[in-house]
What does this fold into?
Amino acid sequence: MRLLVLDRDHALYAALIMAAEPRISVVSGDDPEKLREAAADCPVWLAQPDFAAQLLRLGVHPVWIQSSWAGITPLLADGLPRDYALTRAVGIFGQVMTEYLLTYMLAHERQMLGRLASQVGVQWDDRLPGSLHGRQVLIVGTGEIGQAVAHMLAPFGVELLGVAKNPRSLLPFSRVGSLDNLPRLVQTADYVVNLLPDTTETRDIYNLPLFNRMKPTALFINAGRGTSVVDDDLVSALEANQIAGAVIDVCRVEPLPPQHAFWHTPRLLLTGHTAAPTLPGALIDLFRDNLTRFWAGQEMRGEVDFERGY
It folds into this structure.
């Protein structure tokens, strides 16, 4: 079988695959146009979605694409074909996402940025820190990553609430509500963590009326999709001290334009879409497992429903 690896890290992925699966012939690169002819002979692609979308627009048609990202938004664009199997990267981001969230939650409790400012100002900062124990964490998006994050946060003694498309009893959450319940649930949360995908239902849900319902001590963290946040409303909420701060990993336009207000908004930290990087070894393990399922005609892990968008 011929496999196309189309990714910025194509050389590493190709080497890992060839070492583990010598029966596979691998073509790899990071330029969709240059690989157009070779891709036509590859029924299976391991690709980052934006590159794969470019190939699809050139008329090349795969049987199956394994995304190297958890998100597959570029492949859902209007006019692109959907008559192929598409699988997301699943089961490999839980720990790195939790490490990201803990970094900024603990920094918030320990007032790290404030202490740094005090040091720059030659001021002895002996304010008492807070603790995660007893804090209420609202995880908006209780899919595979959200559930993994919840299980890893639970030992810190936090109270876990969730928001899902279909509310249900789900451990370790004390309760899980629907998106319609979000305005009520944010009122008591110390941390509001967005992990939602980009769908029509999740766009612009973090607006000024919602921020106005949050506690003035709450920290908002967006590691889901930039389209969920009304940027100007978040800026207004922070400038009015309506919430304590925001950590923004994902934006509507990336890289963020130099003139965007986020660069200069008080108590807003940008982290450059680095929350949950793909771990190469874990991705290749997932791909090999899905490849076995593909050859056997079995359901693959992370299969995308194009109608739902995830």
